[in-house]
Specification:
Length: 164
């Protein structure tokens, strides 16, 4: 019985990291889908599935799963830079750190706003709260992620200042 308990504890220790890895891979899959719907020749999409996935992770699993959002964004962006240059250099990796940080903050802030607006109460969905969270969380969080993304790209020299 004592050994069975130890085996269960070891399994419990792996549960969270495996969940984080699985959710990170879900973020990467969403980003690959987002890349498919991007407007050529760039990397800009009308909507970005990983943003919704990040919000869902924070709402369903909680704030403690922020590493999944960060890791998924970091992995996808490193893959994207590698596709462009066929190298992984420290500057590109730092740019990816900035972008991943913005993506993570976007998901966490979005979840916080949705919760603060009281979108879902025990009585059911509240349409006024849904609209309030859409108009607050949407633009606010997207502005946050875009600022981190563009700021990181500028700081890393991936885009020129004249492009902004």
């Amino acid at each position: 019985m004592h050994q069975a308990r130890r085996a269960g504890e070891k399994h419990g220790l792996l549960k969270y990291p495996l969940q984080v890895l699985g959710l990170a891979l879900l973020m990467v899959a969403g980003a690959l889908i987002g890349k498919l719907i991007a407007i050529p020749p760039g990397n800009v999409a009308v909507f970005w599935p990983p943003a919704g996935i990040a919000l869902g992770i924070a709402l369903v699993f909680g704030y403690r799963y922020f590493p999944a959002i960060w890791l998924g964004s970091f992995l996808f962006n490193n893959w994207f830079f590698y596709q462009q240059t066929h190298t992984l250099n420290p500057t590109a990796m730092l740019v990816c750190v900035g972008i991943a940080t913005g993506s993570t903050l976007q998901g966490l802030l979005g979840a916080w706003v949705v919760r603060r607006c009281g979108v879902y109460k025990q009585t059911g969905w509240r349409m006024d709260a849904v609209l309030k969270s859409l108009f607050l969380a949407g633009p606010l969080t997207c502005l946050l992620a875009a600022s981190f993304g563009v700021g990181s790209l500028l700081a890393g020299g991936a885009i020129p200042y004249s492009a902004v």
